[in-house]
Amino acid sequence: MARYETVIGLEVHIELKTRSKIFCDSTTEFGGDPNTHICPVCLGLPGTLPVVNKKVVEYAIRAALALNCQIAGFSKFDRKNYYYPDMPKNYQISQYDLPIAEHGYLDIDTGGGVKRIGITRLHMEEDTGKLVHQGTITTTPFSLVDYNRAGVPLIEIVSEPDLRSPEEACSYMEKLKAIVQYTGVSDCKMEEGSLRCDANISVRPAGSSKLGTKAEIKNLNSFRALQRALSYEVERQIEALEEGGRIVQETRTWDEGKGVTLSMRSKEHAHDYRYFPDPDLVPLVIEKEWVEDIRRSLPELPDARRRRYVMEYGLPGYDAAVLTSTREMADYFEDCVASYSNPKAVSNWIMGDLARLLNANNQEITACRIKPRQLASLLELMEKGTISGKIAKTVFEEMFASGKDAGVIVKEKGLVQISDEGAIAAVVAEVIASNPKSVEDIRAGKEKALGFLVGQVMKATRGKANPELVNRLLKERI
């Protein structure tokens, strides 16, 4: 594989978070019974006319600016003509030669440092319906069609072929997802299909500047699928070339169960779609003043926020990157720090115990029952010595399950830390008397024995003894 170089470009489709569809007033709400979120316009029935949703244009500009794109003063909608059962009109309204935005970029972190990935274009289009297969697309005896999604507004973001590995492709997708989520134009829920990806991939001899023949892998709807499909395709193409074969330009699908890509059809070219300007939609003239108003409304984006966390809060770069990976997590962190001014302690708890419980329960931070002020209160109890770090973890799990305040749980369960020196000294004396062998080991320089005695004191006090005080008293008495 060292003799070949992988070349990858991604086409990412993102559903915009508008209330109504791109050319009609049907709802974009996810779910619902099949074919209930439809109307004559999104079904393309005779006599209907589309009208562009201004919010869609605004959201497209907002995302494009966040991705450093140039906004076109003049753009238009085109008809992309092809037959497929999930398209009620037998054409898709998209943008071809005059998209709303071009020439952008985003930066990703790689093992060799920061790498800039070019963005060729960002354009608007309508989503298609959804085919429901009885099995996989290649084995199903029949498929059902649901047009609820037809007409939902999309932006398609096309990258330059700048990605050189499946890992870089995943980093690009993660960064793109974070930026778009920060702008608020989409929730990017891959499990609901609001973020999907097509990957163009080819291989070429190392050192060559000529692109190899590419294959397009359609509808990759998870980071795991993207990673596995690209890894498989690299191996497939290299193996074919090594055996003296050639790569055919085609569209392939990813079979998650078998872990392979499968051929669907020969790859189409732009002229196959017979693009022409949609006669029912007037061109878009975008005023510069509107673009600048949208630019001023953009939030602080992930890279800027990460740099600020390092400078303002003194966090390590790794912590800052994790905390800013989603806007919701970054907001949660800042709300905590506003109540408890130890950013590193807050970061440790969010990245550690909170992340663990969220992952175990398959839960987003927005659904977490522990509010930022409640986490701050728990840390304050630890700082005051009211509870130990070990007890704090127990309290935290109860907070996560019940949503109760830390103080309430500590009081209900009698978990207040024992910091009375006299009370702890009595327990220490009993432990020393009961473990003469450990005492001799400590006096002989075996430090591990001290940990055993500390554990015995903590056990006797049900974890309530102040650990620092226990350590000091044991050392003094021995």
Automatic annotation (TrEMBL):
Catalytic activity: L-glutamyl-tRNA(Gln) + L-glutamine + ATP + H2O = L-glutaminyl-tRNA(Gln) + L-glutamate + ADP + phosphate + H(+); L-aspartyl-tRNA(Asn) + L-glutamine + ATP + H2O = L-asparaginyl-tRNA(Asn) + L-glutamate + ADP + phosphate + 2 H(+)
Example GO molecular function: ATP binding
GO biological process, one term: glutaminyl-tRNAGln biosynthesis via transamidation
InterPro entries in the cross-refs: Asn/Gln-tRNA_amidoTrfase_suB/E (IPR017959), Asn/Gln-tRNA_Trfase_suB/E_cat (IPR006075), Asn/Gln_amidotransferase (IPR018027), Asn/Gln_tRNA_amidoTrase-B-like (IPR003789), GatB (IPR004413), GatB_C_1 (IPR042114), GatB_Yqey_C_2 (IPR023168), Gln-tRNA_amidoTrfase_suB_CS (IPR017958)
EC number(s) given by UniProt: 6.3.5.-
Key words of the record: ATP-binding, Ligase, Nucleotide-binding, Protein biosynthesis, Transferase
Keyword Transferase annotated: yes
Keyword match Cell membrane: no
SUPFAM superfamilies: GatB/YqeY motif, Glutamine synthetase/guanido kinase
Residue ranges of every copy of the Asn/Gln amidotransferase domain listed in the record: 331-478
PROSITE patterns: GATB
Pfam families documented for this protein: GatB_N (PF02934), GatB_Yqey (PF02637)
Coiled-coil annotated spans: none
Family membership: Belongs to the GatB/GatE family. GatB subfamily.
Annotated function: Allows the formation of correctly charged Asn-tRNA(Asn) or Gln-tRNA(Gln) through the transamidation of misacylated Asp-tRNA(Asn) or Glu-tRNA(Gln) in organisms which lack either or both of asparaginyl-tRNA or glutaminyl-tRNA synthetases. The reaction takes place in the presence of glutamine and ATP through an activated phospho-Asp-tRNA(Asn) or phospho-Glu-tRNA(Gln).
Subunit architecture: Heterotrimer of A, B and C subunits.
Designated name of the protein: Aspartyl/glutamyl-tRNA(Asn/Gln) amidotransferase subunit B
Gene that specifies this protein: gatB
